[in-house]
Design brief:
The chain has four helices and twelve strands, in the order E-E-E-E-E-E-H-E-H-E-E-H-E-E-E-H. The relative contact order is 0.16. The N and C termini lie far apart (65 Å). It is of the alpha+beta class. The structure holds cytidine-5'-diphosphate (CDP).
Length: 256
């Protein structure tokens, strides 16, 4: 606990409280296809954030009046488990989760080829199991991988992370203490080409600081993209089609 007159220093010999350099991401872990009932799913850790994303669809829209004649609609529900934060979160949607759901949907929708599936819906559910700042970005990363796992046609993956300002310094991927006590937080999401699909800002930055934060967050997204891509390639290359019929045990050639 820090006393009123004590000032917490966010840097020690140039490194952050968790040992990271200012431009370093937290450790990332991604698992694909973790839920049997979902069409696509992903478990992701970004530092101490733990999230799970489940994708269902394209499927029939209920209620029917939400149907669009020429494209699929995308729904995104971000939910924080009541045990995911220090102070128990009241279960159910609130202003914050509605906002996060909306901006996260808007971050992913531009890459989903919705015109392929008229009158249907792609449902994305993100459950935050453990929160440590950056849950919207972790959720978007996990959802992007889960959409790919579900086989939803997309122009590209989406990668997301934030940059912030603490002790007057721009840092990548702020953790909870930096986010809470820091001066600014800029979460972004982008395509591998660098097209931004989410840009928010909490706090204040000078134009120069903002440019630095944006450049840093974009570099972070590039690193996350490589991890997302590798996880998907590894998963699907290990599920390769058999090279010859002989490789499928117990089935005759006709059955194959
Ligand atoms: O998680 P994210 O950074 O996307 O969103 P935020 O609204 O900036 O929240 C930052 C952090 O505050 C969350 O990741 C949680 O660790 C924490 N928080 C909390 O403790 N209780 C809440 N009801 C909401 C957020």
């Amino acid at each position: 606990m820090i006393g009123m007159d004590e000032k917490l220093s966010f840097f020690k010999n140039g490194v952050r409280l968790d040992g990271r350099r200012p431009d370093e991401l937290r450790p990332i872990k991604i698992e694909v296809g973790v839920l049997a009932r979902a069409d696509g799913s992903c478990y992701m850790e970004m530092g101490d954030n733990k999230v799970i994303a489940a994708v269902y669809g394209p499927r029939e829209v209920h209620p029917r009046h939400l149907q669009e004649a020429t494209r699929a609609i995308v729904r995104y529900r971000y939910n924080m488990a009541s045990f995911s934060v220090e102070e128990r979160k009241r279960p159910g949607p609130d202003r914050r989760s509605n906002e996060v759901s909306k901006v996260s949907r808007e971050a992913l929708e531009p890459v989903i080829l919705t015109s392929y599936f008229p009158k249907s819906v792609v449902d994305v559910f993100v459950e935050v199991l453990q929160a440590d700042a950056g849950t919207r970005t972790a959720g978007i990363n996990a959802a992007s991988v889960a959409l790919a796992d579900a086989g939803i046609p997309m122009k590209s993956l989406i990668s997301s992370c934030a940059a912030g300002k603490v002790d007057g310094e721009i840092v990548l991927d702020p953790m909870k203490i930096e986010d809470n006590l820091g001066e600014a937080d800029v979460p972004i999401a982008m395509t591998p080409n660098g097209d931004i699909t989410l840009l928010q800002m909490d706090g204040r930055l000078t134009p120069e600081e903002f440019r630095k934060a944006l450049t840093m967050a974009k570099a972070g997204c590039e690193q996350i993209y490589e991890i997302q891509r590798k996880v998907l390639v590894d998963r699907y290359s290990s599920m390769d089609e058999p090279e010859s019929c002989d490789e499928v045990e117990g089935l005759s050639e006709e059955e194959i």
